[in-house]
Amino acid sequence: MKILDWYILKRYLVTFLFTLLILIPIAIAIDIAEKIDNFLANEDLSFFTVIDEYYKNFVIYYSNTFMPLALFIAVILFTSKLASNTEIVAMINARISFTRLLYPYFIGATLITIFAILMNHFVVPNSNKVRKEFEKAYIHKYKRNQYKYVNNFSLQLNDSTYIYVKSFNLHNNLGSHFSIEGYDGVELKSKLYSDQIKWIEKDSTFKLTNCKIRLLHSKRDSIQYFYNIDTTFAFTPKDLMYKSTLAQELPSYELTKFIDLSRERGVKNLNSHLVELYKRTSLPMSSYILTLIAVALAFRKKRGGVGVNLALGIGIMFLYVFFLKVAEVLGSVAGSSPLIYVWVPNLLFGFLALYLYYNARK
What is the residue range of 215's domain? Predict the structure, then answer.
């Protein structure tokens, strides 16, 4: 029986890799056709730079994206082939149950799930960061400025301190119309306002220009004016960059820290970040569900052959992707539960997988 398990597992993994290697070149060809004009328009852009900074990371991202689709198609293809060659009939005649037949499939699904989880949490975010920096520099030049500036940014530093900056240039670390307010409960106690704020990276300090400090007392207020003040605050421009950075570019440990820090600072809606964090685990876990559905659909020999199984499988995969995207959008809405919405597609198709499994056992 170990020989048969190894045979199925090897076919499972080889067909999966073969399917993935077919899908990726197609995606690259479509992307090249779309972006070739942008590449040629940049005379300083070398072929090696395009490959190293863009397409290497493009392959990492889309390999991870296409993994469930490639897995599902691969299982249908080689299981249908086993059925058409009456190999599964021979296994059943040898009193191998359908449940026992699934063992090597689930071993393969486990290997792919572990690999996908590690990729999602550690490798893909860093790869996305490099790829998107390349796109900002050479493909979406007209959007470049929107990544340099943070506008109308507010932040709660602790329970009693809030900051506000009208605009901040992340390229030269220069901002305008900055204020910091101190509260005692809901009562304002102090406010510092400056026309300009400059981050001095060498000294890790801020330089404020044209400042006004107002202190509110029980009977009277006091106001002081300063031309320049060098001081420190409990934030850096990095905190502003995190506010404008996409969650897809942060490894999971950084994304978790950012979510916790944002909660402490009173950021109201972090659901889009939570959806991204939870999806990095839920999507790889779908390997088990899709494997079970694919085997249950393809293990019987059908008159239409592989084509019927493949058409039915692609239809189911389309529905899964549709539910996945809808769940991501609904999970990002303020007041919703991102964890529940992210796992809803897996739960729905998990019930479908169990239904097909019980029918297949009969």
Answer: 158-234
